[in-house]
């Protein structure tokens, strides 16, 4: 359910989206400031490889990311914190924070990664999903099948795109070209 309203805290037009988890009546409100919806820049899929990949810790200055762990286990570093992660976890990266995912197994951890621009949630800095003290990992728990399906659907939709541009970097079929640490 999406509708517009205004919030005294933000003094801007907001979108309220109700997220229902586990078929329960619990709903969390997400307020998008200034009446603008965030944009999906890219969707990538980290295929589970024969061996784990070592990447440098990095940051993105112009966008944020959300990842869904579809297979494996490992460590997640974000905003100066380290978390154990496993299949079904949702990982949130705040724009500008150093972050990285590493596998604790012999093979690479499987993730679906979504780059998002224009994220402005009420009460948070631009490009932030959460406050550091609230943590950066959200387990899907009872909703793991739904989160897997939704993540795959978003990825497949992005794969069908013919081309797009991200801050001068051009990609196609749902992937961003260039070195992510430079973005």
Percent in helix: under 10%
Strand order of the largest sheet: 4-10-5-8-11
The span between the termini is 33 Å
- Major β-sheet, in short? 5 strands, antiparallel
The secondary structure category is mainly beta
Beta-strand residue fraction? 35-45%
Order of helices and strands: EEEEEEEEEEEHEE
Unreliably modeled segments: 1-28, 162-183
Question: Mean pLDDT score, rounded?
Answer: 74
What overall form do the CA principal axes indicate? globular
How large, in whole angstroms, is the Cα Rg? 17 Å
How many strands in all? 13
The total of helices stands at 1
Give me a quick take on this structure.
The chain has 183 residues and is mainly beta. It is built from 1 helix and 13 strands.
How would you portray this structure in words?
The protein is mainly beta and 183 residues long. It has 1 helix and 13 strands. Strands 4-10-5-8-11 form a 5-stranded antiparallel sheet, with helices on one face. It has a 3-stranded antiparallel sheet with strand order 1-2-3, with no helix packed on it. A 3-stranded antiparallel sheet has the order 7-6-9, with no helix packed on it. A hairpin with a 2-residue loop joins β6 and β7. 26% of the residues are buried.
């Amino acid at each position: 359910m999406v509708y517009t309203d205004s919030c005294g805290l933000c003094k801007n037009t907001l979108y309220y989206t109700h997220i229902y988890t586990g078929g329960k009546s619990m709903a969390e409100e997400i307020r998008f400031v200034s009446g603008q919806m965030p944009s999906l820049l890219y969707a990538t899929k980290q295929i589970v490889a024969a061996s784990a990949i070592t990447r440098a810790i990095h940051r993105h200055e112009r966008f944020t990311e959300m990842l869904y762990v579809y297979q494996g286990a490992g460590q997640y570093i974000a905003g100066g914190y380290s978390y154990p992660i496993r299949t079904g976890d949702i990982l949130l990266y705040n724009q500008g924070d150093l972050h990285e995912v590493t596998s604790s197994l012999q093979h690479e951890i499987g993730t679906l990664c979504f780059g998002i621009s224009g994220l402005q949630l009420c009460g948070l800095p631009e490009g932030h999903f959460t406050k550091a003290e609230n943590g950066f990992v959200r387990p899907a728990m009872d909703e793991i099948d739904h989160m897997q399906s939704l993540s795959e659907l978003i990825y497949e939709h992005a794969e069908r795109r013919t081309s797009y541009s991200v801050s001068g970097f051009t990609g196609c079929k749902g992937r961003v070209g260039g070195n992510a640490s430079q973005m």
